[in-house]
């Protein structure tokens, strides 16, 4: 009766020592890699669609996007007329198709620049003025 109990206790202790040694060896290796500074290149997109740069470049850049090149690219995009008079579909980035479109149409509502939600709302359709949006059947944002 004592012999199986002793063998069980001995195997338990040997298993515990093996786990302790394994974890001790593993944690020393992990400690070396945690303190090492990160190396390698972290890619970021350029306006030409290429990936370049490092994290330091990204953090030290004052200008992350060349807005002039971005605006020139969208200037070539034609205005896609919407399904209602005075409406147009947004640009691929969600922006207004031109400066004359200032009213954002979303679902059954439209948002003018006076709307507190205007900066956050992504337009499904753009309208030239509130009257065009009302003719299309949309309600004012505060109605």
Shape: rod-shaped
Q: Mean of residue pLDDT? A: 75
Strand order of the largest sheet: 3-6-4-5-7
Sequence of secondary-structure elements? HEEHHEEEEHE
Structural class: alpha+beta
The main pleated sheet reads as: 5 strands, mixed
Measured as a percent range, the helix fraction is 25-40%
- Strand residue content: 5-15%
N-to-C span = 86 Å
- Taking pLDDT < 50 over at least 5 consecutive residues as the criterion, the unreliable ranges are 61-65
Number of strands: 7
What Rg do the Cα atoms give?
A: 31 Å
- Tally of helical segments: 4
What can you tell me about this protein's structure?
The chain is α+β, with helices and mostly antiparallel strands and 143 residues long. Helices cover 38% and strands 13% of the residues. The longest helix is centred in the first third of the chain and has 34 residues, at 2-35.
